[in-house]
Amino acid sequence: VSKLIMERRQKKKRPCGTKQIPVFVALIVLTGTSSLYFVFILPYLIKTYHFMIAIMNGVITFMVYLMFARATFTDPGAFPKAPESEDDENDLRQPLYRNTEIKGITVKMKWCETCRFYRPPRCSHCSVCNNCVEVFDHHCPWVDNCIGKNNYRYFFFFVFLLTLHIVSVIVLTGLFFYQNRGKNLKENIIPIIILVIGSLAAFPVMGLTGFHIGLVSLGRTTNEQVTGKFGSGHNPFDLGCWVNCCLVLFGPLPPKYRGYKAPKRRKPKKQLTTQPIQLPNNQLPKNEPLHTQHIQIELEPVLEPMPRSIVKGGGWTGIQTSNVPSKNNDRVLATYEVSV
Fold first, then answer.
1. Residue 108: partners with Cβ closer than 8 Å, 6 or more residues away
2. Predicted TM-score of the model (pTM)
């Protein structure tokens, strides 16, 4: 059953290149609109009003890009998958839910067939990233990452600062357009483009920012709000508006989880052993004791067995070779253990 579920999930996955399309679209729109504003609008505002406008816009824009990068590349708090074992072939033996009690409220922990463990409270499995994420909020296609416990604050500040950036650009561009309203359309085409793009982006971004401000104050996640987990009862994770904001946005972050790594097996060292080569008994002289001696001779690179005529009335008892380079590196030494 678990193998069939895994195969279906893998088929539903989009190719890796298509997942980055929303990220590139967001970056192109943000960078293009901001560039038009800084090149054509901001110099006029600095001359007319004050240079502090440029400093304010520069700091906000830099922080927007910084929070965007942190939300994109920070691990959201993904739990490593449990190592596979023979017992995992039949997941039907595991109960689907286990209950735990938090502040007098029963919270269900669901068995994850993909990661092979019971999900902790507030943890959910992301079908896009194929990981169980701690305090899962949602999967954001605009940053191509899950939003969880470790990177939620960066996502929140990204959305909040992006709202400030869009509002400031719209207001200051509108002021520029109002003071130059007597000019023809060609001279005002740049501020019109900025105002149109900024207005289209302002409403959804401002709505998203207000939505997450409410979630943080209530101590909820987007997943809990959409699924209605604590809609009818008390939320055991709600610590009050002030404590929720401080804990979520400025609290300490947990370390990154590491998966189980099996110990590496050491490969046994190869040892050279001498194996005896015995001849039939009829080739050995009768009633004559055997004396063993070592004969060291030089051979050409292609080793050939020693002719039997070298040993007078004897037989091979063992052969041992050792690579000892000579001056010309074209000969090797071989030690023959001969019975004579």
1. 97, 98, 99
2. 0.70
